[in-house]
Amino acid sequence: MRRLIRQRPDVNGITEGVIWKQLLLFFFPIVLGTFFQQLYNTADAIIVGKFVGKEALAAVGGSTGTLVNLLVGFFVGIASGASVIIAQLFGARHAKDVSRAVHTTIALALVSGALLTVAGLLLSERILLLMGTPQDVMGYALSYLQIYFLGMIPQLLYNIGSGILRAVGDSRRPMLFLICAAMTNVVLDILFVLGFNMGVEGAAIATVISQVVSAVLIVGSLHHAQPVYRLHLRKIRFHGDMLARIVKIGLPAGLQSVMYSLSNLIIQASVNGFGTDVMAAWTAYGKIDGMYWMIISAFGVSITTFAGQNFGAGHYDRMRRSVRVCLGISAGVTVCMSALTLLLGRPMLRMFTDDPLVVEIGMTIIRVIVPTWITYLCIEILSGALRGAGDSLVPTLMTLAGICLLRVFWVTAVVPVHHELTVLLLSYPITWTLTSALFIVYYLRGKWLGRCIAH
């Protein structure tokens, strides 16, 4: 018989407390931590854009960011299955299985990080060439990536370790560790790029060191955590049955991330075809846009944990109510963020570059995409809830068809005929709207819940 986690029934607010209050208490540390993560990514872009040049800005955030997301996203997606499994087991109070899942997940982080380092070093130049990266950007991009990929093991250890903590309801410590890493990165960016004049290589080294800091903090925290999810270094290994459960839920998410990144890779290649000014504007917009996505992703992580723990505890009605509350709050936040970005877009863009043409192109991107952010909401929230309950395959297929394949079709079939930046940008709201409609219909039909309970 499985040993049960000893805790009073009133301890776990996720399964027992007031939903909106507990959701926000869990959400705010995630979004604040993600803000600091965005800060140290943005610090690279601001410093190299202002003090190295627009070619360096295009390299640090454009081609390199898309490639990193492609390679890293697959393994982080698989590891998201571990967060779901741990949340469900923790909600059901199965202590022994929680421990086995934790040690399997850390083993996955170490192996995945090593594979990513090798793949990144071997494939970076080839993929940058396939993306049509301009020659004046190529050298910067390749230098940045060759250093950046040396930090894959610590990056995955942090991402996967923070997923473990959030799965058991702790979103505060991952936030604090990200703040430390972000501050480290900003200070080192200034030291290496401005003080030592190391250019994009200095920005990459600063990022790797900050990732090491966050990894050391997260591993130390897990090593001294509560017994139920405490990390014992000597116990790190793959448990076959647990790895199979993790992969069953996480593999669709990993494939979805790859398809997302491939479609974005194709979009990035199309953006590259418009020249360095558009690439720089797209990079600057991406940093502004990232502020919204960090918020909506934090809601997605929150609802996945809420759905997972309540599903594990058998509180299915509470799980559904959590989804409605999360949708309502995130919709309000989206409207406010859209209005602020439209209002302050120009001064935000000027933080990254003083080039007036780049700023004007950036404003065009903002006017087309930002008002349509709300069309993405149901994809993030409903897919997070479905994944938390263990249903990951169908949401992945809907996302692949509605966003990835349709976006690839648009970029390869429509954009070449009407080669305008605005036409390319329309691929976002069109695919978001259609995919959101698919998710709403699937979620409201409700048959997914019965299948998850049966399994």
Q: How would a crystallographer describe the biggest sheet?
A: none
What Rg is obtained from the alpha carbons, in whole angstroms? 21 Å
Shape type? globular
Portion of residues in helices?
A: over 70%
Give the CA-CA distance, first to last residue.
20 Å
- How much is the average pLDDT? 84
Unreliable stretches:
1-10
Structural class: mainly alpha
Beta-strand level of the residues, as a percent range?
Answer: under 5%
How many strand units? 0
Overall tally of domains: 1
Number of helices: 17
Could you characterize what this model shows?
By secondary structure, this protein is an all-alpha fold. The chain has one domain. Helix content is 83%, strand content 0%. It is built from 17 helices and no strands. The N terminus is likely disordered.
List keywords for this structure.
455 residues; globular; mainly alpha; disordered N terminus; single chain
Question: Layout of helices and strands, plus pairs?
Answer:
Blueprint: H1 13-16, H2 19-51, H3 54-92, H4 95-130, H5 135-148, H6 152-167, H7 172-195, H8 199-223, H9 240-272, H10 276-312, H11 316-350, H12 356-369, H13 377-388, H14 393-414, H15 421-425, H16 427-445, H17 447-454
Short description:
This protein is mostly helical. The chain contains 17 helices and no strands.
